[in-house]
Design goal:
Blueprint (H helix, E strand, L loop, with lengths): L14 H8 L6 E2 L8 H20 L2 H7 L6 H11 L11 H14 L5 H13 E2 L1 H23 L7 H6 L14 H82 L5 H29 L13 H11 L4 E7 L7 H21 L5 E8 L3 E9 L2 H7 L3 H12 L3 E7 L2 E8 L5
Parallel strand pairs: 3-4
Antiparallel strand pairs: 1-2, 4-5, 5-7, 6-7
Helix pairs in contact: 2-4, 5-6, 5-7, 6-7, 6-9, 7-9, 9-10, 11-12, 12-14
Length: 433
């Protein structure tokens, strides 16, 4: 797999040069990411190319002239270049085009051999692909032919690296010598073939690694989709079971309450109680349908909008059910409250009143809700503590549910005894996340 990234990641001291140079060489794609190779590998490449470059300089016409009594700064410049230029290989993974072009150009003008451009070319082929890569390969082939031909024409034997290495070991270094075309062609093909072959091998390994990463990513996505599908099926099953079990019972309750209201006769209290039972059974059916619709929705789907004005409905239903309640509700800019906040406030108030009715049905409940965009929302509820009723319930699921809702929104829950009052205090931030 080829990952096309036209803009390389920046590195101090080289990113500007990289961008300006690569902007002129656009017909290429990156193979994988420009990760830095192991440092020891770069050190080995640098040391090997320094030795080969020094070998080429040692068997070059300028050094032969110096041995014969010549003078000047040119041999020193050759030695300095042979030792300094290979250091560019430390940045070959970031600027393969620049390294290859510079080293090939230097090898044309200075007798440092062609080991540097061949190593840089292998890196280029391994990390880039496209027309620009093969144009650069053709250029390196031409410069390599030039370097080999120049070395082959140098006389005497001691002024040519190839003649010194391929010729007889006992031959006189001061004598002239010739190399056959077959020898020169073999050196040219061997050097270029090793460079291109190594580059293609590295490219195939990098492409295989990129393909492996892509396959793993696809597997992760497929696994996530499978988990979501399994959760969806489970939610569908739960929704069907809840609808079949609770829907039938609530329908029967509503029907019996309607019959009781119709047969209440002259007793208004019975008629009112039956009416409240029937209306609350209908409201419970609406809540059940809303819950089932949420269960059937995909994970992350939006829920129906609610408003803080629904608090009045909760309080009114509590009065209608006979609960002794004293409430004070003031929310500034209620229409601008985020939907998750309004839903949490609605459910928390509903749960607080339900808990009070369950644990202390005959006690007065005091509820205060204050809120504003600047201060957030504060919910305070308290009633006289009734030990027998509290112990009889044997459950604290309501408070746990309130705590979970508050924590999800970044709020807090505090509850406990204050003298003979059981108090619950909830704070919720207005701005979420």
């Amino acid at each position: 797999m080829v990952i096309d990234e036209r803009i390389p990641a920046e590195r101090p001291g080289i990113s500007v040069c990289q961008r300006s140079y690569d902007s002129a060489v656009t017909s290429f794609d990156k193979v994988g990411a420009d990760t830095r190779p192991p440092w020891w590998r770069s050190v080995l490449y640098v040391l090997a190319t320094v030795l080969l470059s020094l070998l080429s300089v040692a068997y070059s016409p300028p050094m032969w002239q110096m041995e014969r009594g010549g003078s000047g700064a040119f041999p020193g410049l050759l030695l300095l270049t042979a030792m300094a230029l290979p250091v560019m290989l430390f940045w070959r993974h970031r600027t393969p085009f620049l390294c290859t072009h510079v080293m090939a150009a230097v090898s044309v003008f200075l007798p440092i051999g062609n080991s540097l451009p061949l190593v840089a070319l292998a890196t280029l082929i391994g990390r880039r692909r496209g027309p620009a890569v093969w144009w650069t390969t053709a250029g390196v082939a031409l410069t390599s032919a030039w370097v080999i031909g120049r070395d082959a024409l140098a006389q005497p034997r001691a002024a040519s690296a190839l003649k010194s290495l391929l010729g007889p070991t006992q031959a006189d270094p001061a004598q002239n010598a010739q190399l056959s075309w077959a020898q020169l062609l073999a050196v040219f093909v061997l050097g270029l073939g090793i460079s291109i072959g190594a580059g293609l091998l590295v490219r195939s390994r990098r492409e295989a690694a990129s393909a492996t990463v892509a396959v793993q990513a696809e597997k992760a996505v497929s696994g996530q989709l499978g988990d979501e599908l399994a959760r969806h099926d489970e939610r569908e099953r739960i929704a069907r079971e809840v609808h079949d079990a609770m829907g039938h019972r609530l329908s029967l309750l509503s029907m019996y309450a309607g019959a009781l209201e119709a047969n209440a006769g002259s007793d208004p209290r019975v008629a009112e109680a039956a009416h409240l039972v029937r209306s609350n059974a209908g409201a419970a059916m609406d809540d059940l349908r809303s819950l089932l619709s949420v269960l059937r929705e995909p994970v992350g789907a939006e829920q129906p909008a609610v408003s803080l004005t629904d608090l009045a409905t909760v309080v009114q239903e509590s009065f209608g059910a006979g609960q002794r309640l004293s409430s004070s509700i003031f929310v500034q800019d209620a229409a601008s409250a985020p939907e998750p906040l309004t839903r949490a406030v609605y459910r928390i108030v509903q749960e607080l009143l339900t808990n009070a009715r369950k644990h202390a049905p005959r006690e007065q409940v005091y509820l205060t809700v204050n809120g504003s965009p600047a201060e957030g929302v504060t919910i305070d509820a308290h009633n006289r503590y009734v030990p027998d009723q509290a112990a009889a319930s044997g459950s604290s699921r309501g408070l746990k549910g309130i705590s979970e809702r508050a924590e999800l929104l970044g709020g807090t829950l505090k509850y406990g005894l204050d003298a003979d009052q059981f108090r619950v205090h909830v704070t919720l931030p207005w701005q979420l996340g």
